[in-house]
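Lab notebook: predicted structure, single chain.

Context: the supervisor wants predicted structures on file for every construct in the current expression panel, including those that have not yet been purified. This is the next one on the list. No modifications to the sequence; it matches the entry in the shared construct table.
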Amino acid sequence: MLITLTTDFGLHDWFASVMQGVIAGLNKRATVLSITHQIAPGDIRSGAFALAAAYRFFPKGTVHLAVVDPGVGSARKPIAVQTSRFFFVGPDNGLLSWALMKEKIKAIHALENEKYFLHPISNTFHGRDIFAPAAAHLSLGLPISKLGPPLKDFVHLPWPEPRRRKNGIEGEILYLDHFGNAITNIDSAALESLGGRSLCVYLGRKPRCPVCDFYQAVPSGKPIAVLGSSAFLEIAINGGNAAKTFSLRPGDPMTVQPRR
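Prediction complete. Output recorded below exactly as produced.
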């Protein structure tokens, strides 16, 4: 059975490895793969985007464990969700919701059965003591209903829909990747709604880069926007770092307009 990890724990400390150790102690046959541990601390939206971008490429039956949990130890619920293809385990703070948007939900349960926790339970490390054991037990075939009582719904993180304006499409930056590319919420359908014209990305009122098909369409060091592998428009620099060059952050606004 396959289990994935998506966290904001980074690679400097032992936290991600300890979760893997807990899983291995409960299911020695489980394969544990990391989607990423480099989400910015407490950045639930970036964690939700990373999980949503990656989860569907794993085999049916995979348990997706995600921990970006600034509310750890508070009243927020730890949950597990079963869909027609996967299991998801994590805090009920919206982190799982973007991955679940297009999934057929079969069951949602709170993680409350302490029989399946690691004891003693730390108020600051539910990833180790609650989430990792739950994921391991699911990978062993434990029915999700054994983990705790059913829930009617989970917390939904609002998806920022691009907005059509008279002169183009208004969107925002959702995620900054390792290369400094700024991934936006504008997809191919939104671009096609502009009628196939030559397009330009604006940051503020300044035109910054053309929308092209591939990075090498502009000289090295020049900015460009392309539809990336996540199926969303991303702002990049050929051979450079757009996030640093333009001081971009998740949530920053941008627009796509026909070239003037």
